[in-house]
Amino acid sequence: MTGPLGAQAQDIVETYRKPMPTIKPMEAAAFEKASAPVTKENSEDGALSYRFRLPARWEESLSTGTESYAEDSHIFSVIGSFYGPAFSGYNSRLFVEAERLGFEQTPEQWLVLRMVKMGGTVQGLAVRADGAAEALYVTVDRGVTYVQRAVAFRNGPYIIFARYMLPEQNWEAEKAQQASVMDSFAILKSAAGSAEDLVTYHFLDIAAMKYPKSWELRAKPARNLDRFEIELFNLVAGKDKRAQRYQAAQKMNGVIGVRVVSLDVLETDAREIETIKADFHKQGLVFRDMIARQENIKTGASVVESWQESYKVGDSQGLLLDYEIWVSVINTEDYHFFLTLLTPGRNQDIASWTRNTETYKQVIAMLQPDMPDAPPPR
Q1: Domains of the chain, with CATH numbers?
Q2: pTM score > 0.85 for this model?
Q3: Which of 110, 280, 288, 369 is exposed most, by the fewest CB atoms within 10 A?
Q4: For residues 210 and 370, what is the distance between their CA atoms, to the nearest angstrom?
């Protein structure tokens, strides 16, 4: 089974990914009559601009645009805050928040990570046709149970997150309005851009690749023009150099390998893959069950054939590990590219897994074989 995040038995993502409950919104004419359009343009950064329809008798909080808070080293800016009239002693509230991403992730991945951290009972979590992710979940705040409907958009380097908090006591009377309000929410100005600054690396004039600046590149000495090899290390977590096993710990946090092999010396793709597996075995890592296989992966131009496989990883000493290895093969007319990823498993560390796999996909997607005008590496 395959999907936006891959597939695996008891996958933590699958425990959150559920169809959204069917909740009929208000009739369009009735909702338009009972609400007013709100447009919020951000003069400093247009990517943070949005629009939606606000129900009648709702008010905007005076603190809108000035509030921020931290959660597990993530900084969220509250760029919109609204509240409804008291009903049965409780107010419904709507918050619009923004986070400047520290690494590549999809709206669904971001929303799953937030659900994992904050807890609550997820009733539904799905990806919409426009790529945004939406969720319906139940939380408790200061002794009050809320049903929250939320939507997360990726816009440039930001996640824009809107959530409508509805007191459980008011659920039946207000659920249609909640659905209509969240359906009306939209990004005002689409923006492009990576979550991190990117660095370009050239394999002489053979190919160019881009990777996040936060990753460390180490190139192995090239003896000729037929074979090149580099590694990218995720060195974000655990940078305490006093640790005795610093290098090993950093390597296991995430490493991407790239091999470029000329057809003049390549035996077969299968033989090269066996060599790659043998190199991992020397590190004490053994390929176990295949998780997924994908044909025609997203990459640069001039590609003749491409495919990707992901595996569970075992330890040659019999130790229990929860790691994954991904292997991708990209073939051009003159060179074959072999890319690997070693990462903590999605159920071991969902945050590191998300960061590593999305960086891996980004490196592959931005790989540009056949670069005749590329300058030599500096």
Answers
A1: 12-187 (3.40.1000.10), 198-369 (3.40.1000.10)
A2: no
A3: 288
A4: 14
